[in-house]
């Protein structure tokens, strides 16, 4: 039953128990009880509003807690990625140190920069983006216009054994490049593209037969003059373009 009606009935009952009263007196008492009923209703509405506001605040707090938990999970994932990148960087540093050690002469020291040491051996590491590449200038490996490995070049390739076999690489790409100077008339190969393919194949065969590289991981690419890394207009640039890249893909 509605609380207002109950209050009104109660008021009528009380008045009735008093016996006969005047209409004005009855109206006054009724008005008083109606005012009290309104006050109770107002207090009840305020209480219900407070309860609703509290529930709303609780829901907002729960949502904030869920958001904070999700943000914490995201930060943890970012931390895992940072740690993974750090591990990858440490591996590259270890590879660089290995190359330094393998090509170390008696007068070299670890105080020299990596760039200085590799420059002396005509060898470079390119790790700006995966895969890591060992870059060898072809003057170390071949005579001009030839795809046959020089005898002294086999020591250079033999020193790559530790680097190639220390990790299970998914692919070992042998990529050969030339400058843009055409081959002389009557040369063994028809053009630089053909020459680059045969040079890459020669390096790959030596790495498999002698160094022990897994043949199922080897890929041979010949690019000829089409991927220069320096200016072909001068000899210094052309020498950089005549290169063999051993790309290690994990």
What keywords describe this structure?
250 residues, alpha+beta, 5-stranded mixed beta sheet, 7 helices, 5 strands
How would you sum up this structure, described in words?
There is one protein chain. The chain is built from 7 helices and 5 strands; from the N terminus they run H-H-H-E-E-H-H-E-H-E-H-E. The longest helix has 80 residues, at 23-102. The chain is an alpha+beta fold and 250 residues long. Strand 3, helix 6 (192-211) and strand 4 (218-224) form a beta-alpha-beta unit.
SSE diagram, text form:
Elements lengths: L2 H15 L5 H80 L11 H7 L2 E4 L5 E6 L15 H6 L2 H5 L5 E7 L14 H20 L6 E7 L10 H7 L1 E7 L1
Parallel strand pairs: 3-4
Antiparallel strand pairs: 1-2, 2-5, 3-5
Helix pairs in contact: 1-2
Q: What is the first-to-last residue Cα distance? A: 79 Å
Strand content: 5-15%
**Average of per-residue pLDDT values:** 76
> How many beta-strand elements?
5
Poorly predicted sequence stretches spanning 5 or more consecutive residues: 102-115
Largest sheet, spatial ordering of strands = 1-2-5-3-4
Structural class: alpha+beta
- What percentage of residues falls in helices of 4 or more residues? 55-70%
User: Sheet bearing the most strands, described?
Assistant: 5 strands, mixed
Radius of gyration: 43 Å
How does the overall form come out from the CA principal axes? Answer: rod-shaped
What is the H/E order?
HHHEEHHEHEHE
The tally of helices reads: 7
């Amino acid at each position: 039953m509605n609380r207002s009606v109950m209050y009104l009935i109660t008021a009528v009952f009380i008045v009735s128990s008093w016996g006969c009263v005047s209409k004005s007196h009855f109206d006054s008492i009724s008005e008083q009880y109606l005012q009290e009923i309104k006050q109770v209703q107002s207090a009840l509405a305020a209480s219900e509003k407070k309860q609703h506001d509290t529930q709303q605040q609780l829901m907002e707090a729960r949502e904030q807690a869920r958001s904070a938990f999700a943000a914490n999970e995201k930060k943890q994932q970012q931390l895992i990625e940072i740690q993974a990148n750090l591990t990858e960087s440490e591996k590259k540093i270890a590879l660089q140190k290995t190359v330094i050690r393998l090509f170390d002469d008696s007068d070299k020291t670890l105080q020299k920069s990596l760039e200085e040491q590799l420059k002396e051996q005509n060898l470079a590491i390119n790790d700006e983006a995966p895969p890591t590449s060992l870059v060898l200038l072809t003057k170390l490996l071949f005579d001009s216009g030839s795809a046959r490995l020089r005898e002294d070049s086999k020591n250079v390739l033999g020193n790559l054994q530790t680097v190639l076999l220390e990790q299970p690489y998914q692919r070992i790409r042998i990529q050969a490049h030339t400058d843009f100077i055409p081959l002389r008339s009557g040369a063994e190969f028809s053009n630089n593209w053909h020459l680059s393919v045969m040079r890459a194949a020669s390096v790959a065969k030596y790495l498999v037969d002698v160094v022990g590289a897994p043949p199922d991981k080897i890929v041979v690419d010949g690019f000829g003059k089409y991927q220069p890394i320096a200016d072909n207009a001068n000899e210094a640039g052309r020498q950089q373009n005549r290169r063999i890249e051993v790309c290690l893909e994990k």
